[in-house]
DNA sequence: GTCTATATCGGGATAGAC
DNA sequence: GTCTATCCCGATATAGAC
């Protein structure tokens, strides 16, 4: 983060460290994206200022604008990065697995994500709640396709009598809603219970409780 | 909305219509609060402008500021109004009821609210996700107390063996999360399923699916 | 209560030196 | 790539007439 080289005061530059410079630039971009996630996820696109983000990332406002031409550009870049993390865990629900195991693993994975990447979850939530102006395409395309694939897996399990009948979309939404609730509504959960997912016992209880709830709904517990 | 009286051009005013004027003022305030809910719930506090809100409410920017001294003041007023609607449905879970009936009614009520007052749900969501800076006190006080009361009801039912054992807080959070999901994440639900709660069949399927899921988790189905 | 200016300011974005 | 200085616009809020 800090401690960049003094920036060779000498003249005959462009010798060897060219390659390292490029990597520094990448790191800088990463730092900005990290800072953007933090600030955007608590203040929203309009509530956040470039100043805040640049300060947190350890550079100047103008310098940030060298890496990202506008605030909106940065915001979209942050969102895209979040979306990848977001779409990934669904893979856990694969047709080859034992239904109960697969569901249990998926739920644990989602709650773990709520614990370890709550800001990503919140930023995503903010965007969707506001109508997903910048994400509609991604939602209707890639996300929809992946969900349909997993819904098909669930339908297969139902048809084979391996789990009880339940609308696959509803089931997926329920898992999302419950697991993400502990990240997105953490302020409320904390106000009511006084605890959060950082507390290992609370984390484990949340995982197991959610697993039990979902499995029961498909007759596996 | 439109068509206010011409505004007595005469001089000897303040005769009879004084009382009606006060009621007009109240209506005006209501209209502003309504407009504020609409705009704030999609743009957020910082994304919304007084111009947009005043236009939607059918008056001028300056005029709006006559009724609410600042944007923040209006925002808080809107939020307070939402909170009341929000806290109300919990009453449905009363100790005297049959557990299955009470849970079913509560769930239907919540989904109905997601259908009829999605903007209120979204504004509340935005606020909580951002850490509830203006609501922390209300959450830790009134909301917490009401939730504790209802958690006690659930514990009573469990102790009496009328429903299966499940952490009361988890159960309440699950119901909130699932039912509000259809309002807060409507954009996502629509992108994936192509439907929303305005569709009567989808509404009914959502109510019944959620009832089934929750009841199953406490061994009542 | 409602309107027409207008003061004021934060903050996004650009120019250009280094 | 990074800095200083600056432009500029949108938006909140106020002043004061009607």
TrEMBL record, chains A, B:
Biased composition (Gly residues): 1-10
Start and end residues of each stretch annotated as Disordered: 1-24
Annotated InterPro entries: Homeodomain-like_sf, HTH-type_TetR-like_transc_reg, HTH_TetR, Tet_transcr_reg_TetR-rel_C_sf, Tscrpt_reg_YcdC_C
Superkingdom field: Bacteria
Stored SUPFAM superfamilies: Homeodomain-like, Tetracyclin repressor-like, C-terminal domain
Transmembrane segments: none
Pfam family, one: TetR_N
Assigned keywords, A-Z: DNA-binding
Molecular function GO labels: DNA-binding transcription factor activity; transcription cis-regulatory region binding
Record's signal peptide: none
Lipid metabolism keyword on record: no
HTH tetR-type domain boundaries: 26-86
GO-annotated biological processes: negative regulation of DNA-templated transcription
Annotated DNA-binding residue span(s): 49-68
Entry protein name: HTH-type transcriptional regulator RutR
């Amino acid at each position: 983060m800090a401690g960049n080289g003094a920036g060779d005061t000498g003249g005959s530059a462009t010798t060897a460290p060219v390659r390292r410079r490029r990597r520094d630039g990448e790191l800088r971009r990463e730092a900005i994206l990290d800072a953007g996630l933090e600030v955007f996820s608590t203040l929203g696109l309009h509530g956040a200022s470039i100043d805040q983000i640049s300060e947190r990332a350890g550079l100047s406002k103008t310098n940030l604008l060298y890496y990202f031409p506008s605030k909106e550009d940065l915001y979209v870049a942050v969102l895209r990065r979040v979306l990848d993390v977001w779409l990934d865990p669904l893979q856990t629900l694969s047709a080859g697995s034992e239904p109960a195991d697969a569901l249990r693993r998926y739920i644990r994975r989602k709650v773990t994500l709520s614990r370890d990447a709550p800001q990503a979850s919140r930023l995503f939530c903010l965007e969707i709640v506001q109508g997903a102006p910048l994400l509609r395409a991604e939602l209707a395309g890639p996300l929809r396709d992946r969900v349909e694939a997993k819904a098909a897996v669930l339908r297969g399990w139902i048809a084979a009598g391996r789990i009880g009948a339940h609308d696959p979309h509803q089931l997926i939404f329920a898992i999302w809603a419950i697991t993400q609730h502990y990240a997105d509504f953490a302020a409320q959960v904390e106000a009511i219970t006084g605890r959060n997912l950082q507390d290992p016992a609370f984390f484990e209880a949340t995982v197991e409780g959610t697993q039990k709830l979902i499995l029961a709904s498909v007759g596996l517990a």
